[in-house]
């Protein structure tokens, strides 16, 4: 029996089993069995490189966004509108057969947008080009799930299930469970609060299913058995997802209103060019990019050419900023002067660990420069805030 058949069989058994206190342990065990099989399914077949079979596109820009959706929801139309790169669009399904990259220029940054073939139910098990599409989505920073506003809401659930089946977790943070395998000592199970979904016995059973007999487990939130399995598997990818409802030109205003009020959702129409600005703004916000402008001593910063940092990719500290400019820079840095929302006063003298925020301005003070003369007075004379700071100052949160 193949892996997919085995998964189907267990799913059928779960559907047959009534949910109650007595069956809870058995159901937990079945969930762990499915998770293990799904992990096996994701392993590249023997003899292949494991790459996306011609789908891999070189990363470009400050972040990557994937367009995921059923066929003919308007993914290619959207790519063409947002990036100017033409991607064939037509009324028949599976018009797009490969991965097509475009670039969005937004807020002085470049974002790579990827158009992909439509995926269908069963994609996670390899139907259509599901596997390749999913591999590309996993390589992105966020996902735009494109949906046809005139079609059933069920599509969003089906797609979410497909992505979950391959270990993607959308708009969710990692479970607050500490888990560490040990060599000896048995299993230590603890929690910092009362648990309502998982007890010690269930946890033991799940670990037993994974043949783990020595480990430390500490629940820091009232997590579920699915959360526990995610933590044990350890290969989950937590991503932001924006639900993009396209084609609102063909539905009534009441329905548009309902969709627009859902969390993480944007309603658009490519045909009428409706709300695309809002989509871009949401996308930008979800990516959490941090633009930092370098201010050479005695000069104004170049506000068109930021260093772009991200908390998810590489971090946002002064050290990350310096490494971004040049990998040998760090050893020459004495401290930096910071203007912007991360600074308590302007300019603030900050060390390497200081966490920068979007639109901060940084001036690097090198060790050598200081010794060479000039000293503090010299910095003072150049420490006037750059021109754009005055309006930014109004936004600056008051910190004590
Ligand atoms: N009414 C309406 N139709 C749209 C809109 N956007 C796209 N379409 C149409 O929807 C059809 C499918 O568009 P595509 O861009 O090819 O969709 P896709 O998701 O890339 O499709 P596949 O590549 O086949 O998965 C085309 O006929 C488009 O003209 C819209 O905002 N409103
Ligand atoms: K199409
Ligand atoms: Mg397409």
UniProtKB/TrEMBL annotation:
Gene3D superfamilies given in the database record: 3.10.20.30, 6.10.140.1070
Keywords in alphabetical order: GTP-binding, Nucleotide-binding
Superkingdom classification of source: Eukaryota
GO MF term (any one): GTPase activity
Biased composition (Basic and acidic residues): 366-375, 389-400
Annotated region described as Disordered, given as residue ranges: 366-400
TGS domain boundaries: 288-366
Domain OBG-type G stretches: 63-288
PANTHER family named in the record: DEVELOPMENTALLY-REGULATED GTP-BINDING PROTEIN 2
Record protein name field: Developmentally-regulated G-protein 2
Natural source organism: Populus euphratica
Organism lineage: Eukaryota, Viridiplantae, Streptophyta, Embryophyta, Tracheophyta
